[in-house]
Structures are given as C-alpha cells and as structure tokens.
Amino acid sequence: MATPRNRSSAGTMDRPVLRSAFQRAVAEYWDNERDPVNLRLGDVDGLYHHHYGIGDYDPAVLGASGSKRDQAIIAEMHRLETAQAELLLDHFGRVGSGDPLLDAGSGRGGTSFMANERFGCEVNGVSISSSQVEFANAQARERGVADKVRFHFLNMLDTGFADSSHQVIWTNETTMYVDLHDLYAEFGRLLRGGGRYACITGCYNDVIGGRSKSVSQIDQHYTCNIHPRSEYFRALAANDFVPINVIDLTADTIPYWELRAKSPVATGIEEPFLNAYREGSFHYLLIAADYAG
Ligand SMILES: C[S@@+](CC[C@H](N)C(=O)[O-])C[C@H]1O[C@@H](n2cnc3c(N)ncnc32)[C@H](O)[C@@H]1O
Predict the structure, then answer these.
(1) Which of 171, 227, 252, 279 could bond to 231 as cystine, CB 3.0-4.6 Å?
(2) pLDDT tens by residue, 122-135
C-alpha cells in the first residue's frame, strides 16, 4: 500500500494540509455538509456520492405519490450518480489488481469503493475534509475493505505519496477547488510513466465568453472556482499529459438535473445548472489523459 511520508495528522512536518483561507473555507463547507441530497441517496445502498448523475431517468418514478414517489425519485437519482462513476471507471485504461489508485478529493468514498470492487486494487482517497475522511474510513471498515481502501486527510496539491507510486489518478468533480497547473504537476509526480488520469468536471465555456451569471451562482453556492474549458487542456499539456478521450456529457446530465428539480431533495441550485447547460455557458466533461513524463 502506498503511504504518504513524513506526515502528522495535520499535514507534513513542516506544511499544514490547509494552506489558505480558501482551502479552510472549502474544508469547513464539507466538514459541515449533511445535505439530504447526498445522505439520503447514499443510504440507498451505502455508496455515498458527492457528484451528479448521467443518463435518462425512468419517468415512471414521477407517477407514484407521497413517500413512495420521494423514495423512487431518490433511488433513481442515485442510480444515475452511480452510472456517472461507472463511466469514469470505464476510462481508467489497463489496470492490474496490484496497481495502486488515487481518488483525489474522495468525498465520502463512493467512487473509491466502486473502483476497488471493479479492479480489486488498493485505493487511496484524499480529502481536505477530516469529517469526510473519518466517515469514509468507517465505511471501509463496514464494507470489510479497510485493508485495501484508505482515506487520508491530505491536500491533493501536495499529498506526500512517493514519486511514481500510482497507476491511475482520478478527480470526480473536485478540480474546481484547486489551481490546475499545481494539481497536474503533483499528479505527474505521483503517476508512473504511461499512467492514466481520468476526470469528470463542470467547466465554463470560454469559447463564447466569460463566466456567466449562472456559473457564478454555482461557484457561490459551493464555494468553488469553476475553470474555463481551455484551462484544462493548457494545464494538462504543460504537465506532460496527453488526452486520449474527451466526452461532452452535458446533454447526458440534463435529465438528472430535471429530475432533481422535481425531487424532495432539491436545494435551489438546480435552476442555475439547468440554465447554464441549456444556454451553452457550462459543460459537463469527461477527460482521460495518459502521463507521458
Ligand atoms: C464535490 S466533492 C466530490 C467528492 C467525490 N469525488 C465524489 O465524487 O463523491 C469535492 C471533494 O473535493 C475535496 N477537496 C477540495 N479541495 C481539495 C484539496 N485541495 N485536496 C483534497 N481534497 C479536496 C473536498 O473535500 C470534497 O471531498
């Protein structure tokens, strides 16, 4: 198991995990987050996701009434979120059961457990939310995989894991919290030559202009900083990553948001997402890239 070196629970001996007021605000957001849109969906089968869904929903879930309708919608949204993570795993390339994987910004661990189940690999998850790390490690014990899936209170910009220690690194809706150049420099250090980086993210469409009002509302809601689309490819190229797949998932995620807007766990951010996607100012992208360094 790849383990981070020279770390106390608060970070490296000389550098704390949280380095800026922005990172402290992000950590505080996730430490305090108890949103039913995440917890009630995770309760469906014990896989807790903090990302969105893809694919068409079954309209029959809207036909029931009362609590049966609520439960059916929640189960359907969870199915779409799990489908999103399955698609991300489909882009990990060739993975052997002995290859260590890194989930950068691991939330409550849903995608990490799915990766371990699919590939049989050891997985390290890192998050700057200590309460998420605690939650996810408790899940790992409950699922009987604590020897293979471990979560660490670490900053993905400076993990402390050894050079070339991982075969695959993924980010599932986490890149909007960090500088992409710093992030991909760290991932280049951590990946073996020919290793794979896979990402799903929202990004704004800088081909047609700047950050739209709806995108700014999303930033404000989640305390994040959504990047322009071009920034991903600039930062990847600058750090020796060569994209092999880029998939625009925007049309695939709209049904999820339409269902979420009708759900009992809507938070109010559904309209800005739907507006941004429909007006073309925001994209939902999958990027897979090989490390050529
Ligand atoms: C939207 S959640 C996504 C969680 C998970 N990837 C998923 O799909 O369920 C964003 C995650 O990024 C983490 N995060 C944000 N900035 C980070 C940083 N600099 N280092 C490590 N994790 C970070 C947060 O703590 C949170 O777990």
Answers:
(1) 227
(2) 999 999 999 999 99
